[in-house]
Design goal:
Blueprint (H helix, E strand, L loop, with lengths): L1 H17 L6 H28 L1 H4 L6 H33 L1 H19 L5 H4 L2 H19 L4 H8 L5 H6 L4 H19 L2 H6 L4 H21 L2 H8 L8 H17 L2 H9 L2 H10 L4 H29 L1 H16 L9 H20 L15 H18 L1 H12 L1 H27 L2
Helix pairs in contact: 1-5, 1-12, 2-4, 2-8, 2-10, 2-12, 2-16, 4-5, 4-7, 4-20, 4-21, 5-7, 5-12, 10-17, 14-20, 15-19, 15-20, 15-22, 16-21, 17-18, 17-19, 18-19, 18-22, 21-22
Amino acid sequence: MAPASSTLERDARRVHAQNHGAINPGEIAIGVVIGRTSEFFDFFVYAIASVIVFPRLVFPFVDPLTGTIYSFAIFALAFVARPIGTTIFTAVDRAYGKSAKMTIALFLLGCSTVAIAFLPSYDRVGIAVVWVLAILRIGQGLALGGTWDGLASLLAMNAPQERRGWYAMLPQLGAPLGLIVASMLFAFFVGNLSAEDFYSWGWRYPFFVAFAINVVALFARLRIVVTPEYTQLFESRALEPSPVFETLRKQGHIVASGTFAPLASFALFHMVTVFPLSWIYLFTKENPTRFLIIEGIAAMFGIVAILVSGLVADRVGRPALLMGSAIAIAAFSGFAPQLLDAGPVGETVFMVLGFILLGLSFGQSSGSLASSFLTQYRYTGSALTSDLAWLFGAGFAPLVALLLSSNFGLLSAGAYLLSGAICTIVALRLNWHSEAHE
């Protein structure tokens, strides 16, 4: 893997040399958005398949609801594995450099994803398919832990002081962009193939596409990582990976605060992406194609809201925007989930409102407390904070929301979302309180 990494690095340096000149924030932003879009595309391809494919392909021996619950349990494995991946790949980063780490991680991510496209059915291999799917999902999670490249931190450091909020939201655009591409791909295959063809081969194509996108993303990231500016920041310790356990020992309290500060946003993330698709698919007679299209359109509202979050954050500050968004999400949780039971109009209102709120909060949720880390721990601390926020805020959200709503009604799913909003409000208040006494 090291020779391949060196070749890629030389190619990236050659591209950089041909474009002579320093990397500016706009160019960094392009690399960040491409990288995040590829990650989220992988993420959503698997998430959609967890609802409409795996319960039938992998768990046909149970009823559809139980099969989806099992599928969501495997879905969560990637979030459990992600901090482990960060630990492993931080060691690789320290020993061999970022280009080697990213090449290995993205290769593992791409291979784990494309291998799912060849997944046999339960009817052919029996219970072994469950173990294979779980192993590949863990592989995705380990790889995601290694794809942390520090580009968002580099972007923030190179952004003008008065536009930090604007540049902070740019990496978050990858989420709705990845969702739009994934949902439209599945909508096309579900809508244009017979059920037999879709479950035989049609669902596999988005997983093939994911590998190609990962190759593009690797070059886009290496284009930035090997620049002299990035190397200088690395050498000055601004982006140096510190040992994971040392970071937790020295800065664990900041990791904990950063984990819970964006919890409302991350809980809402799955409440408007994965969970509603499962509810519609299981408890209504609606064709999933139409809802996937609604989801893609609602994600466009999310893109606009993320852009707006950058403008608002530069006026009122990121903590204030996160606090306001958490309060709005708390209010949303009291009535919105029930809209999923209100027919096509209610579903559309739920999705559009949800994505607007998600865009405003998610747009500024990344690294909201990154500046609180000591410089030498910022790179690894930010990676761990992201991993743990996804684990606690989003990893089990579809599973918990489906379990609650199927047993106690949609109001209970709203209560789950409310708990995330409360965690964010408390974490932000505690952080403000500690800053006031420093």
